[in-house]
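Progress against Task 2.4 (sequence-to-structure conversion) is shown through the following example record, which the project officer requested during the mid-term review.
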Amino acid sequence: MKDDFILGDSALHQRLCAITEILGKFVATAPRPLSISQLTESTGRSEKELVKLCAGLARAELLQPHMAQVPGHWALTCAPDLVTLEDVFRCAMAEHPSEQALSTKAPAPSERHTQRLHRDADLLVTQAAMAINQSVFQHLRQFSLDRLNFSTSVPFPSGSASRYSSRRPSLSL
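Structure tokens generated for the chain above:
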């Protein structure tokens, strides 16, 4: 049986699922914060994994530490209906190691011509990947995580949406 994954990568697919699950928990409880222990209990994921995921979501400005006095608590930074699968995909891509980063071996001098051809091919593939990613972002932006059915949602305070919209980069095709 063939497994189907977004862009054919099972590791990226697993990250997408994990981030969607975690953000879904925050969307369901917004504007209330969640603790790492609450996330551990509800997801079954390790505390170490959850801390890493929440830190990545904070770098993407989707989560923020709730209060300095209560470490390990995180809160959504925007209205729940503004969190989309595009945000999830961007976070997963930001944390996903690229093949270039994994290969740090310097080429031998006799391979310089081959290296230039590889660099040109890498540039072309990078340009194609950027175009594909923009198309993927455009489609994923249409899916808000508030579509997940949660009955525990509380209305998010108004005024936070403007912070979010200034955070989101504009994609022009």
